[in-house]
Design goal:
binds magnesium ion, 26 helices, binds adenosine-5'-diphosphate, alpha/beta, Rossmann fold
């Protein structure tokens, strides 16, 4: 009998034939630590080797699997060190020409007479069919009716040094030995109602399907399982939070709140009022608040915070506000001082930029309760910071932080109320996965008088016209940004600002090289613009490698109007609010995702003057062109986020750590929307009935959740 412990220990994989200590590391490189991991490792595709194509029948454009013998082979070396390896593959019906570039070692591996299975797209060269860089697998003599032939065969994602054949054998061994010991996290009644197979059968089917139909059912079941476990974890957290009693009690109305309202320079939009109402209602509940406030860039989330903070401070508590960049934290501290300072509320900034001794003094002030509102970067969670009477934790631009960081800050008090904000509108599927434990308030309207930002796409050839556009704005007393892609990250905050970019850059090495040249480009550009293009205006430069003090000084000069044009890296991406800025030029926009472009564009058009955003690109890459076209066509952040999800996947919207705990391997947030909704309903119903999962049919789910929480941290 295989026990649960064995199944989850890495050592268990050693029992499998063909796996020694060295091979164990190969499996680890694939992310397979345990037998359970191997059971759930999804193939990236399948080949139907029951019905292989006859070479005679293949046509250009077909994607096919063929089987044949190497009839002839040849390695050619070209000038410049390139090589071409060619092989003629024949079956009973014809000959297929195949070639591989720059893989000279194939000449050693493939001999005349070898039998192969090839997979790829047929191209025509003259009258003969050919495949370029087909995927290839060797057929051994005794393969008939084995794991590798005569059936639907799994093709896995691999790493170097691991072959399909070997991995297939190992996984078959794992399934044979361990699949029966898998505990099914799906409650039996639910599984039966859906007509889904048990977990053992399902994992066997995703590796070695008996038919396409049963594969589909198994995939659906496992995708559901994955989503269900995630939703159950979130629903449990939600349910536990509701059952918690917090110590803090608030007075909604009072002199301070009244005074803040009186002093507002504008009247709140209906959306803002509703959000405030929802948040205050939460605060007055006996259980701690867990709420997400979302709203497109520029909709006015900050003022909502000011009012909510006033309620907490008036009730005798402290508030912590965390922002992802130093620039934004500094701005928040400044804005909060304007809203609350004159009314006697003390606001303190804690970030890397604050000098060590001053920071120590502020920390002491926080600890003795002398500071009411503490604004900071992730220094807030890193520092050995303690609060005297913290009751409310606010995290701005939450998508720039990891899930763990939110939890960290929330540990600074017994059961604090937590409010997180994001201006990256989240498609519902993603919201349910990332923030499924939160209630959501959405600000749906922009303050009155805003006009849609006129967004244009120009090529290099139009640069003079572009500068004329900028000049016209500056001449009218407005200000502008010119943005370059990320330069070398000099601090954690910049690293996080760059995260969304990562999927676009192939290798870290390349990225580094490019970043340095970008910094040069931004610096040179600033000088060029100042000296040769806009000598009559004042041009500033802002990038992450500047000292905190210089950054702040430059930002203040820009905010105060002493600088008219700011050449900057993406550190201006989030949060900054200079209402007089009406024009933004984005260089190399093809390197940004849609969500990030939209964030950048959100820095302008924050007042009542008409604003324009210009992306400058001669990109030829089709995906990039499509992105830019979409960007120019719509200014609706929600729509752009949906498009981004479609075009680049969830990773583009959120850094890896965001869904680190909730990485989906089988389910897809795009394809499986309906399953996700179902999983959420079922998980919520279950938790309402049995929050701690004491029932016998959910024992396996309970264990799974315990492990899942460990991963989440
Ligand atoms: P975001 O939601 O992107 O954080 P902000 O809170 O920075 O947006 O607000 C953007 C700008 O709109 C700020 O200059 C702010 O003062 C202004 N603003 C906010 N609410 C209103 C309102 N109801 N009427 C007019 N202007 C507003
Ligand atoms: Mg903001």
């Amino acid at each position: 009998m295989v026990t649960q412990a064995v199944r989850q220990q890495p050592q268990a994989l050693r029992y499998i034939k063909g796996v020694g200590p060295r091979r164990l590391t190969d499996l680890q490189r694939l992310g397979l630590e345990t037998a359970e991991d191997a059971c759930y490792y999804p193939p990236r595709r399948y080949e139907d080797r029951r019905h292989l194509a006859a070479i005679r029948d293949v046509k250009p454009g077909d994607v096919v699997t063929v089987r044949g013998c190497v009839l002839a082979r040849d390695l050619r070396r070209l000038r410049g060190g390139q090589t071409i390896f060619e092989a003629a593959i024949g079956d009973a019906t014809g000959v297929l020409h195949s070639l591989w570039f720059n893989q000279p070692y194939l000449a050693q591996q493939l001999k005349k007479g070898d039998e192969l299975v090839l997979y790829g797209r047929i191209e025509s060269s003259g009258s003969r069919p050919r495949m370029v860089h087909p995927e290839m697998e060797r057929v051994e003599g005794d393969d008939e009716a084995s794991l590798h032939m005569g059936r639907i065969v799994p093709i896995y994602p691999l790493v170097s040094g691991v072959s399909q054949r070997w991995l297939r054998q190992v996984i078959a061994g794992v399934l044979e030995r361990f699949s029966v010991a898998l505990n099914d996290p799906l409650p039996e009644p639910l599984r039966r109602a859906k007509g889904w197979p048990g977990v053992a059968e399902a994992v066997r089917e995703i590796h070695f399907p008996t038919s396409w139909e049963s594969l589909k059912t198994a995939q659906e079941r496992l995708a559901f399982e994955e989503l269900f476990v995630l939703q159950a974890a979130l629903a449990q957290r939600r349910a536990r939070a509701v059952a918690t009693r917090k110590p803090q009690r608030y007075q909604r109305e009072g002199a301070l709140v009244h005074a803040v309202r009186q002093r507002l320079p504008f009247s709140l939009t209906t959306s803002q009022q509703r959000a405030i109402e929802e948040i205050l209602t939460d605060l007055c509940r006996p259980s701690p608040m867990s709420r997400l406030l979302q709203g497109d860039v520029g909709c006015g989330k900050t003022v909502v915070l000011a009012l909510v903070m006033a309620v907490a401070v008036q009730s005798g508590y402290q508030v912590a506000l965390m922002a992802p960049t130093e620039l934004l934290a500094t701005q928040h501290a400044h804005v909060m001082r304007q809203y609350l300072g004159p009314l006697g509320v003390s606001v303190g900034l804690l970030s890397q930029g604050v000098k060590a001794d001053q920071r120590r003094r502020r920390q002491e002030d926080v600890a003795r309760g002398a500071l009411d509102v503490v604004v900071g970067t992730h220094a807030l969670i890193q520092a050995p910071l303690t609060f005297r009477r913290l009751s409310l934790v606010i995290i701005d631009e939450q998508h720039k932080f990891g899930v763990a960081q939110r939890a960290h800050l929330a540990k600074k008090a017994e059961a604090p109320d937590v409010l997180v904000l994001t201006a990256t509108p989240i498609p519902r599927t993603l919201a349910l996965s990332l923030y499924g434990d939160l209630a959501v308030s959405t600000i749906t309207e922009l303050p009155p008088g805003r006009r849609p930002i006129d967004t244009r796409w120009m090529g290099e050839a139009q640069r003079q016209g572009l500068y004329a556009m900028v000049r016209q704005q500056l001449a009218q007393g407005r200000q502008g940004y010119i943005v370059y892609p990320l330069v070398e990250p000099s601090s954690a905050e910049e690293a996080s600002a760059g995260e969304a970019e990562a999927p676009l850059t192939p290798s870290i090495h390349l990225q580094r090289v490019r970043m340095r040249s970008d910094l040069r480009a931004a610096t040179q550009m600033a000088r060029h613009l100042q000296e040769e293009v806009f000598p009559e205006f004042r041009v500033g430069l802002l990038h992450g490698q500047m000292s905190s003090r210089d950054k702040e000084r430059t930002m203040q000069a820009f905010a105060g109007g002493a600088l008219q044009l700011l050449v900057s890296t993406v550190i201006v991406e989030v949060g900054l609010d200079v209402t007089n800025a009406t024009i933004m030029v984005i260089e190399h926009p093809e390197r940004f995702g849609l969500a990030q472009l939209h964030q950048l564009r959100g820095r302008i058009g924050r007042g009542t003057h008409p604003a324009a955003c210009v992306v400058v690109s001669d990109a030829t890459d089709e995906a990039a062109r499509q992105r830019l076209t979409t960007f120019v066509q719509t200014t609706d952040g929600f729509e752009l986020a949906e498009r981004d999800l479609e075009q680049r996947g969830p990773g583009a919207l959120f850094g890896g750590q965001q869904h680190g705990g909730a990485r989906l391997r089988i389910a897809s947030l795009l394809r499986d929307r309906a399953l996700l909704e179902l999983a959420r309903r079922e998980a919520t119903t279950l938790m309402a009935r049995d929050r701690e999962l004491r029932g016998p049919s959910v024992a396996a789910l309970r264990q799974r959740l315990a492990r899942f929480r460990q991963q989440l941290g």
